[in-house]
Design goal:
The chain has 192 residues and is an alpha/beta fold. The protein has one domain. The chain has 9 helices and 5 strands, in the order E-H-H-H-E-H-H-H-E-H-E-H-H-E. The strands form 2 sheets. A 3-stranded mixed sheet has the order 1-2-5, with helices on both faces. A two-stranded parallel ribbon has the order 3-4. Strand 3, helix 7 and strand 4 form a beta-alpha-beta unit. It starts with a strand and ends in a 9-residue tail after the last strand. 30% of the residues are buried.
Length: 192
């Protein structure tokens, strides 16, 4: 699960539009890590482009194999809600409070959108935090550069954890971003 907060969605749009032009990519080209990372120079150029943006990101990594039972943290939609809450809790209050949460329009989006706010509220209350996010909306990665940014950052983290030096080198292009929280089998479950 990954989240990112950027001062300006327009800045992401401009940066990725310029990158597409510089690389002679179609204007509708979707930066999706699973296809983009095969092109090392393009992936590196993406990370360099977004590293110049003012954003913060958080990635929560869950090793499903190490966790044992797949349902140990609940059904898949509940698990996603819990991971979302953990990811948002890694970000500073000033970037989360009142912000718009844009969820990638994948298969479980409707469930996640429905349970997202209650799960976030419970997580914040359990930690005695009094701030809330603003609107929760569903987006499409093909048309949202912000979702593409999050996908690429999450992919870079996964690549660094699974594939070693090449992935770490790619992730280092982002500087001190993102914050990474790894869920381990001995870690306490988030608040239900």
């Amino acid at each position: 699960m990954a989240v990112a907060a950027c001062e300006s969605e327009a800045a992401i749009e401009a940066s990725l539009h310029a990158l597409r032009d510089a690389r002679r990519l179609p204007h509708g080209y979707e930066f999706h890590f699973t296809k983009t990372h095969r092109h090392e120079a393009l992936c590196a150029a993406f990370m360099d482009a977004v590293a110049r943006l003012s954003f913060t990101a958080s990635v929560v990594v869950l090793d499903k194999d190490a966790m044992g039972r797949r349902d140990a943290w609940g059904e898949s939609d509940v698990l996603l809600g819990r991971l979302l809450a953990l990811a948002l809790l890694q970000l500073p209050r000033e970037v989360v409070e009142g912000s718009k949460l844009l969820i990638d329009g994948g298969a479980e989006t409707k469930k996640l959108k429905a349970i997202g706010r209650p799960m976030l509220s419970k997580a914040y209350e359990a930690r005695h935090l009094d701030y809330r996010i603003g609107k929760i909306a569903v987006g499409d990665s093909a048309s949202s550069n912000a979702i593409q940014l999050v996908d690429m950052v999450a992919g870079a983290v996964n690549y660094a954890l699974e594939d070693g030096p090449k992935g770490v080198a790619l992730l280092k292009r982002l500087g001190n971003r993102p914050k990474i929280l790894t869920i381990t089998p001995d870690m306490e479950k988030p608040v239900k």
